[in-house]
Amino acid sequence: MPLSSMPLSKAGRSPASPSRQRSSMRWTIVGFSALGLTIAYLDRAALSVAMPHMSDEFHISSAVQGVLLSAFFWTYALFQIPSGWLLDRFGPRVVYPVAVGWWSIWTALMAFARGVGSVVVFRLGLGIGEAPVQPANVKIVSRWFPRRERAFASSLFDMGQQIGTALSIPVVTALTLFGGWRLSFVVIGAAGLLWLVGWAVVYREPEVHPRVSAAELAHIRSDRGGQTSAEPAVGVTVPWRDLLSDSQVWALTVGYVFRSLAGAFFLTWYPSYLLDDRGFSEADFGMVGWIPSLIAIGSTVLGGIVSDRMLASGVSPNLARKVPIVAGLGLSACIGFAPFIQSNVMLMVVLTVSSAAHSFAGAAILSLPAEVARSSECVGAVAGFQNFGSQVGNLLSPIAIGLFLASSGGSYVGPLLGAAVSCLASAAIYLFWVRVKPVTQTRDDLAGPAGQHEGTTA
Q1: 170 vs 175: CA distance, rounded Å
Q2: CA distances to 61, 62, 181, 243, 262 from 58, in Å
Q3: 276: left (phi over 0), alpha (psi -120 to 50) or beta
Q4: Closest CA to 170 of 196, 188, 194
Q5: How many other CB atoms sit within 10 Å of the CB of residue 71?
């Protein structure tokens, strides 16, 4: 019987004597994380695609549309920090499927919306359910991957947001044309329930997973400064007062606020901008509207590879994480040129570049909670704080854009220039405020998926 299929002892397996064959279960796990995030973003982006149809049916003004597009983020932001605590306390095996089941039900309930009030209620319910998804993915990567693979692994699960956003356009458009906008929410909700079944079967902590060999477990632990505990890091939490007094927690939170002020445009007002302001037909939008999100998928992975390869080549962790972040956010500021471009072809080029650059920074940013956290026991909580900052930006942006449109006669100049300034502000915060801690690897292990060779990083 191969070692990877042998039952585990209560004490776990020792990384000192790894089997000759190293399993690769960690990539399956991160694949499930990516699929979960894909469904989450498909759920939350569906409203922005359906909004033109809903606004006609419910007679919704631009200002009210902004409130509806923002409502999801009210509870999503509010429950970020509690979600991080729950993940550190109970682990992603329990918290993640409960969250997916909850949000899938609230997504399907959108089919019963009868006006603005019911839409707000259903979006608030969706926000509660989706709050744990990003902290859970960050926690999973910190548990399943050595540090030198975390940016790449983060880029893989982070692809889910671009894939979900990209799919929302053709999927919701097609389902709306086939059976009305209500059908799209029922179908998307059902997809989440199917994922839940797969997760319950596949996920365990690496120390107790029957398909993780001793060699893979040794690889996962190989650069954790001698940490060799055989028990999963679940059930131990760090007091919130320690987190609230940590300047790096605040740096990650504020940096993500400004990043999301820009990124929220693509998740909320982007379809209305192309359809209402730039004169795209629904057919044109269905053909090209998904391009920025599609290109962003590859950009997300590229950002993770670049960051991890820099780390593997001997570049300090501080630079290896910050270079993709600052470069990506700086280039993403080109969105400020969009309102001054006459050609819709050039407009799509600029929006695509901005979206891709924004995503290029994402993998390194998502690896930061594990890089700055005081211990592995509080990674989920730090990720919850970081994603809370993300949702503050997501919450404020659609409301501010809606109010600006209502007061300016529908001009997008202010919102797009504001997005550019937000990108630059976020880049400055990550550059000057965030400090990534150094690490000393305890062994020179095998190369990662991008062909890295690991040594000692000071």
Answers
A1: 8
A2: 9, 12, 13, 44, 28
A3: alpha
A4: 188
A5: 23
Nearest to 62 by CA among 410, 456, 425, 328: 410
Out of 1-5, 181-185, 390-394, least confident range: 1-5
Please choose, from the candidates 276, 308, 298, the residue with its C-alpha nearest in 3D space to the C-alpha of residue 402.
276
pLDDT, tens only, 301-321: 899 999 999 988 989 889 999
Residue 439 pLDDT grade (very low, low, confident, very high; cuts 50, 70, 90):
low
How far is Cα of residue 224 from the mean position of the Cα atoms in its chain? 24
CB count in 10 Å sphere of residue 403: 15
Task: Please give the C-alpha separations between residue 162 and each of 45, 142, 156, 332, 355, in angstroms, as whole numbers.
Answer: 10, 22, 11, 15, 9
The pLDDT tens digits for 52-92 are 788 888 888 877 887 888 788 889 888 988 888 888 889 89
Structure tokens of 400? Answer: 């501010």
**pLDDT tens figures, 321-338:** 999 999 999 999 999 999
The span from the CA of 195 to the CA of 94, in Å, is 14
